[in-house]
Amino acid sequence: MHHNGVYGLKNNKFFLCLLVYSWSFLVIGVSVYYSYRGMVLAGVILPILIYLKYADKKKPLSYLLLSGQFSFTGFALGLLFGTVIVGTTALRAALTNSGSLYLMWPWEDLASIVLGASLTEEILFRGFLLQNFLGLLPFLQANILTSLMFTAVHLPTWLADGLTGWEIYSNAAYIFIFSCLLGYVFCRSRSLWTPIVLHAANNYSALAALGFVYISPYL
To answer: Would the pTM of this model clear 0.85, i.e. be above it?
Structure first.
């Protein structure tokens, strides 16, 4: 009976993760297709917070490692790593003579792609899914599974942007590796702020790089 109870609990946790992920995939796909800003934040994050507080009886911010003694250190580490990412992008632009980084994106894009996406995706994938998987699987397996799910959830965006097969493959490879890194720094720093800030820096660099790839030649 004891073993059956443990297995039942694990099965319930795994089913819960799949349910949350499936719902999030649907919300993200609809928001991308119809360009609904803010839909992901409300449709993904609020259910997680409500579940943690009222069903799991946990303090959401504490469970997600958004608060606690490692918050400041985690934020500082994310800022340090994020500076390296942005600096590397700028250096690559200079060395390849690609042009200047385009930094004047509308605030709506910065709020949605840099801040909103980073906060939402990290709460979902590292804060909720990875932590639940860590109760079921060893770290390596849990991190790989979370990263595969993280990569797949970007597919609606890539299809909406009209990416080709090779472009999707190369983006998927990068996203998967980056997600594994985010999972690692999350567990090492014991703060969700580290992957959030690192994720935001990566998204900002991607936007800035679009400037010298697509915009600079026409300036």
So the answer is: yes
Cα–Cα distance, 159 to 165 (Å, whole number): 10
Cα 75 from Cα 191, distance rounded (Å): 8
The length of the chain in residues reads 219
End-to-end Cα separation, the chain, in angstroms: 71
**55: CB partners within 8 A, 6+ apart:** none
Query: What pLDDT digit, counting tens, does each position of 173-188 carry?
Result: 999 999 999 999 999 9
The tokens for 104 are 């004047």
**Residues sharing a CB contact under 8 Å with residue 168, sequence separation 6 or more, in sequence order:** 155, 158
Q: In degrees, to the nearest 5, what angle opens at C-alpha 65 toward C-alphas 59 and 67?
A: 75
For the chain, the domains span: 2-218
Rg (CA), the chain: 18
Report phi then psi at 101, rounded to 5. Answer: -65, 140
pLDDT of 101 reads: 67
In this structure, the number of other CB atoms found within 10 A of the CB of residue 162 comes to 7
